Amino acid sequence: MNSVNPMNGEVIKEYTKYSNEKISLLIDQCHDAFLTWRKSDFSKRSSVLLNVKDNLLKNKSQLADLMAQEMGKPLSEGVSEIEKCAWVCEYYAENSKQFLAPKSVETDYSKSEIHFSPIGTVLAVMPWNYPFWQVFRFLAPAIMAGNSALLKHASNVSGCALEIERILEESGIPKFTFVTLLADKEQIKEVVGNPKVRAVTLTGSTVAGKSVAETAGSYLKKTVLELGGSDGYIILDDANIVEAAKLCAKSRLLNNGQSCISAKRFIVMSTIYDAFLIELKKEMESKIMGDPKESSTDLGPMARTDLRDELHLQVKESIGKGAKCLLGGEIPEKMGAFYPPTILADVSREMPAYSEELFGPVASVIRVNSIDEAISVANDTSFGLGSAIFTQNTSLALEIATSKIDAGACFINDFVKSDPRLPFGGVKESGYGRELAHFGIHEFVNVKTICIK
Hints:
The protein is α/β, with parallel strands linked by helices.
């Protein structure tokens, strides 16, 4: 389980996979920790989470440096990620008591109440692209609800995973209430089946989500899945083209283009199609690709060379089927898992750039001739995570967003972002369940009805 620097291919550190016996023992210890932690009050849990917040902020430069080394994230984006983790800790520390307060309901009984209690140990299977944020957006509500947690992180960010464990313990969480497991996929199947693991949350590919859901389903265990996306951004003919192109390029290139909610497909009205392409190209070609530790760098390497090569095959196949490459599209002759900002125009339905998730800095631009066609193309995907509409007619955009777009989120005149105060998740093959806001903390509690006659 090596951690490899995608900038130069050098091994940062070698990690030893845990034995099955060690994993079994850690699950037992995590369950025992839950039995104590569940008895803690909200003030105790909140105190720990606020300590986590402070420790994250205190160490944000070092943690951003670690992300740059392990998966190529530019330092400025790494710092922002840690600050966002601190924010979600503060949010749940301040709001969980209210979210989980008993609720009275008027019925034929003298008293009817709904109570929320922790369910036990929750397993999180997390990806490498946001090594801290993906974990903390599940961890903060799970811990505040009184659960304990196991983390199986992507093997190439094992250093980040162990840092999260260290920070939690340093912040005062009882030992084994949060545990990182250095394990492989086969071992995780056994973890899911362990009776002391009560639920599973996964962020990752649709393939990975289906596999974990199948295993968890065979044990009747609750799952929350946040999977891939092929977000459609509709650019209507009255949009501010310059601003739309700026925001679309930013969304497409964030995290080196490796985000489930990055803008993937740009669906542009034919009347402004050429003008939008000119502005999008200006924005994307202005970005500096290089060492993620340099302050001038906008785009670092992709996380692994195999992921870069897979993306390049999707680009080449799309070009072979008629897409026009207006920018990029070639692997640079330099060390590292780099791929340049790339624009594919005139994308059509038979191309990978239309139907598949391109997990890297590649923009697919699709021409449409009407609003109805734009909506149809936006929905013509197996995914349903995020979407956006750019127009000056916000009334029309609101109508489209609320009743005509199949996605878990639709942002108007901005790109899709996650926010602790708003529910996050998708539909169709983008998964099910919700993270963040009060919805996120209610996913992993026992919603218990109590009635008195």
